Amino acid sequence: MGMSVTxxxxxxxxxxxxxxxxxxxxxxxxxxxGDYAIEPLTQTLAGIRAELAGGYGLVARLGDEVVASVxxxxxxxxxxxxxxxxxxxxxxxxxLGGRLLAAIxxxxxxxxxxxxxxxxxxxxxxxxxxLYRSRGxxxxxxxxxxxxxxxxxxxxxxxxxxxxxxx
Length: 167
Prior knowledge:
This protein is 38% helix and 32% strand. The protein is built from 7 helices and 7 strands. The chain is globular and about 40 Å long. It has helices at 15-25, 27-33, 39-42, 45-54, 96-111, 126-134, 160-166, and strands spanning 5-9, 56-62, 65-74, 79-87, 116-122, 138-144, 150-157. Strands 1-2-3-4-5-7-6 form a 7-stranded mixed sheet. The longest helix is centred in the middle third of the chain and has 16 residues, at 96-111. By secondary structure, it is α+β, with helices and mostly antiparallel strands. The chain has one domain (5-166): Aminopeptidase (3-Layer(aba) Sandwich). Strand 2 (56-62) and strand 3 (65-74) form a beta hairpin. The protein starts with a strand and ends with a helix.
């Protein structure tokens, strides 16, 4: 009998596993763009701890192992900026990324009164773009970062019914 994946709030104790997982997961992005100096690969453990302390994060666990994670924060205008949605390569294509994305959106809408959700990915990251579009996100901007990378910003409005449920 296999174990179930559970999703819970990330804690400071999860930071080291998140850091290692992030490094593993972003290798394919670095290869895709020919740039191994992208921020997720150079971010320090202290940087991840600071993001968790200043925002909110979720982890998905298989037993004691963190196999997926997502982080974000909500600004004063009510925009939830979702970042670094990562899933261990052996756990991909099983809906875990979509589950994490839905869970953090639900949290931000209910607990932080988010009015909209925003995230970004590279223009060649077709799997990411496909997931985000399937979840209602639409491209709202793009910004060239370097010769091989353009970041695409995607956004969607929060479901107004989420506010009713939290009121």
